[in-house]
């Protein structure tokens, strides 16, 4: 697992500069996603149909992941009352490490646990952070690999487009 993590970091660093915007998704159908959050509640992406959902794959050791979390929370807060949700999928880290992270950075969205990394592999989240913007139709419309300012005007325009 360590070599996989190292490969993710190196690949992410190499592509970080190019991940400044959301790109149209051309990777096929939306994979299934059903995981427990850090409190033990199961979240199934299928239950969110009719909403725009940001699915973000991250890890506590990933600096760009940590750096973009506040902008994700700002976007979520700014869209309160709209059909928008965030599901942040942690890649195979112990609960204690995730809880320590949330103690220093409280977030208002569910942190899901991909305990063995299998969901991340199914979603082809090879670089971290890996983010997928799901439309109200349940399909992936946009993807970003690397740190993104989720509260930027360009990103907000894409989200607004999907909310219509």
Helix/sheet category: alpha/beta
* Outline: globular
**C-alpha termini separation:** 41 Å
Question: Runs with pLDDT <50, length 5+?
Answer: 3-19
Mean pLDDT: 90
Textual characterization of the structure:
It is a single chain. This protein has 164 residues and is an alpha/beta fold. It has helices at 2-15, 63-78, 95-104, 118-122, 153-163; strands spanning 23-24, 34-36, 42-44, 52-58, 84-91, 111-114, 130-134, 140-145. The longest helix is centred in the middle third of the chain and has 16 residues, at 63-78.
Topology at a glance:
Layout: H1 2-15, E1 23-24, E2 34-36, E3 42-44, E4 52-58, H2 63-78, E5 84-91, H3 95-104, E6 111-114, H4 118-122, E7 130-134, E8 140-145, H5 153-163
Parallel strand pairs: 4-5, 5-6
Antiparallel strand pairs: 1-8, 2-3, 4-7, 7-8
Q: Which terms summarize this structure?
A:
globular; two-stranded antiparallel ribbon; 34% helix; alpha/beta; 164 residues; disordered N terminus
Nutshell version of this structure?
The protein is α/β, with parallel strands linked by helices and 164 residues long.
């Amino acid at each position: 697992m360590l070599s996989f993590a190292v490969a993710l970091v190196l690949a992410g660093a190499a592509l970080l500069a190019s991940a400044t915007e959301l790109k149209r998704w051309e990777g096929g159908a939306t994979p299934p996603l059903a995981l427990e959050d850090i409190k033990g509640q199961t979240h199934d992406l299928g239950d969110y149909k009719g909403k725009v959902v940001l699915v973000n794959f991250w890890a506590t050791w990933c600096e760009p992941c940590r750096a973009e979390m506040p902008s994700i929370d700002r976007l979520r807060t700014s869209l309160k009352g709209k059909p928008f949700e965030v599901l942040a999928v942690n890649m195979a880290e112990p609960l204690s490490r995730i809880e320590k992270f949330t103690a220093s950075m409280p977030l208002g969205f569910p942190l899901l646990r991909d305990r063995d990394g299998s969901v991340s592999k199914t979603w082809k989240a090879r670089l971290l952070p890996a983010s997928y913007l799901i439309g109200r139709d349940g399909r992936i419309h946009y993807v970003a690999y690397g740190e993104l300012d989720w509260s930027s005007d360009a990103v907000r325009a894409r989200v607004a487009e999907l909310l219509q």
